[in-house]
Amino acid sequence: MSQIAQNPTLSTIQITPELGGLLAVPQGNGPWPAVVMVHEVFGIDDNMRAQITRLSQAGYVVLMPDLYSRGGARKCLTATFKALAAGTGQAFEDIEVAKALLTARPDVTDKVGVIGFCMGGGFALLLANRGYDAATSNYGMLPKDMDAALVGACPILGNYGGKDGQLKTSKTQLDASLTKLDIVHDIKMYPDSGHAFMNPKQGGGPIFGSLLRVTGAKPNPVDAADAWARIEEFFGEHLAEHVL
Predict the structure, then answer these.
(1) Those residues with Cβ within 8 angstroms of residue 206's Cβ, 6 or more apart along the chain or in another chain
(2) Is the pTM here over 0.85, yes or no?
(3) pLDDT tens digits for range 209-218
(4) In the prediction, which pLDDT does 231 show?
(5) Is the four-CA dihedral 234, 239, 242, 244 of positive or negative sign?
């Protein structure tokens, strides 16, 4: 596992005239491996800023495209979930453009990974066979037809909560499919955690946040620390030519 560095430089950028994003660049000497980060359902909020900072501290240039750029979360949420369900659409096009911009940077290596949280974790799974060297899904929705969606995928790491009502069987299902497809993988279920357990603070704001806590979707710092250690080791093995 790599040593955590000082805070990276965070910049809000325009990936295209219509698509914004958040870029994190480590302090120190590159080049660095690249990682595309796909945000959770609440968009690029304080939790996602903390997650991109955390990963970049470990020695990665990370770009998180704002999938709600074309009108905000209310307008774009339905379209983004439709794209996730279909495996195609504007959201996938935006992520691909973000990846192209990221990998063209002179301060990155030829290794690129993808990581997602919640909704973004579902995207990370579907992107695993689209030109990435490693993928991490943190409590991401599983593809409807996993065998078809994941064939030819890069190595996959997964972190799921045993108290996550909709996803508590994800480890069993992913293990079975990825083993069948002979894909390198490491899926872990945390029995004491619910959805979004890796967030440093309660997501959803004052109204939705209270409802989410009732369902068990709340931070678990102990399990989050373990999940991050797994991510660092996994990306270090498959992406990093040098880490801090």
Answers:
(1) none
(2) yes
(3) 556 655 667 8
(4) 98
(5) negative
